[in-house]
Amino acid sequence: MSRSQVRLITMARRTALYESHLAAGARMVDFSGWEMPLQYSSVREEHLAVRTSAGLFDVSHMGRFSILGDGIPPFLDRLLTGRLSDLGSARARYTLMCDLEGGIVDDLVVYRDPEGGWHCVVNAGNRSTDLDWMRGHAPDPVSLIDRSDEVGLLALQGPSAAAILRAAGGDLEHLPYFALARAPVGSVPMLVSRTGYTGEDGFELFVPTPQLPRVWDVLIDHGAVPCGLAARDVCRLEAGLRLHGSDMGRDTDPLEVGLGWTVKLDKPDDFVGRSALERKRREGPRREMVGLLGLGRSIPRHGAGVGGEPPLGLVTSGTYSFWLNRGIGMALVQVGSTRVGDLISMDVRGVPGQVEVASLPLYRGSVGSLSGGAASRPSKNSSA
């Protein structure tokens, strides 16, 4: 998480689980205008819980929109980089929304409800911007409704997630990756998707807001460990999952941040940013995203220069991994300036260090068996 996204609490919004977080001893911070739990016990304990059992995250700060009307698939094909017209019922797809220059407005997940509706989840800090952007591009038959206040969102993540969900009444162990179903959890009917933002197997639960505390308590009673944003950030970074506002934004394009696979230039219809992205693909990116492993006590930090003076690039995300027992990060560097295994210098606010260039993801968790090993192809969650 970048410093601009986490700051001292001023006037922040609260989710329906605010009192539950306080009762669990959470340390609260302002994240993108929301008062959210940074951690409960320790980042290490929560991080390892996700990797070895199951962690439970309140991600109700993220934006949830319903898409209504006729002609939704062609509208989404024209708005987003991915192909949504062939998205099957009860499936979800990760994609990007770009501007005319190919800059990344946001990354999001689109869901096709088994009951026929269409939904999407966007980043918390971009909720109002995305809603205006999408409405501004929607033809008359299509409308978008912000459901964020009436539907909460929980992320149950880890190798024990399916077992905990089954104990709570939702037997979804055979649900495919990036699929969704209607199921009761704690006797509460809801939409559940097999998605997440940690690199582990897991589920995201769309819960009616009044029932959110009840479902939260039921999952904890069955073994889920409450986890905060800090542990979520470590997990997503280990899994090589990009964070909008840190690793990507309007000053970056999908190709240079390693998300070119989301751009379907073979779609028959034009889409926002297509011309710019076709040009960028012909010319080739000038920057590329690489993984970093700290040597010794070196911990990559956002904005740190890597590779000497002038630097080859800048760290976009960095933290300490308790699973890998070392500092980890990602950086945007000049194309071809580094190779996997290279040892390069790093400067963190005047303190010299050294990192090893590594391929992404830095960790492949239980999600790999579900996704064919594509652990670096993220779901929101997300994207925080």
What is the approximate shape? globular
- Summed over residues and divided by their number, the pLDDT gives a mean of 93
Poorly predicted spans: 371-384
Q: From N to C, what is the helix and strand string?
A: EHEEHEEHEEEHEEHEEEHEHHEEEEEEH
DSSP summary: helix tally: 9
* End-to-end gap: 9 Å
CATH homologous superfamily descriptor of the domain at 6-62 and 149-238:
Probable tRNA modification gtpase trme, domain 1
Major β-sheet annotation: 6 strands, mixed
Computed Rg: 20 Å
The helicity comes to: 10-25%
What is the CATH C level class of the domain at 6-62 and 149-238, in words?
Answer: Alpha Beta
Please report the total strand number as a whole number: 20
Helix/strand structural class: alpha+beta
- Quickly give the CATH architecture of the domain at 6-62 and 149-238: 2-Layer Sandwich
The CATH topology of the domain at 6-62 and 149-238 corresponds to: Gyrase A, domain 2
Bin the strand percentage. Answer: 25-35%
Quaternary status of these chains? single chain
Spatial order of the strands in the main sheet? Answer: 11-12-13-10-4-14
What features would you describe in this structure?
- The structure is a single chain.
- With 384 residues, this protein is α+β, with helices and mostly antiparallel strands.
- Among the domains are: 6-62 and 149-238, Probable tRNA modification gtpase trme, domain 1 (Gyrase A, domain 2), CATH 3.30.1360; 63-140 and 242-283, Alpha-Beta Plaits.
- 20% of the residues lie in helices and 32% in strands.
- The protein contains nine helices and 20 strands.
- It has helices spanning 18-23, 43-52, 72-79, 127-137, 161-167, 212-221, 229-238, 274-283, 368-371, and strands at 6-7, 27-31, 34-39, 55-58, 63-69, 91-98, 104-112, 118-122, 142-146, 151-157, 180-185, 188-193, 202-208, 225-226, 287-294, 305-306, 313-321, 326-334, 343-348, 351-358.
- The strands form four sheets. A six-stranded mixed sheet has the order 11-12-13-10-4-14.
- Helix 2 crosses helix 7 (229-238).
- Mean pLDDT is 93; it is low at 371-384.
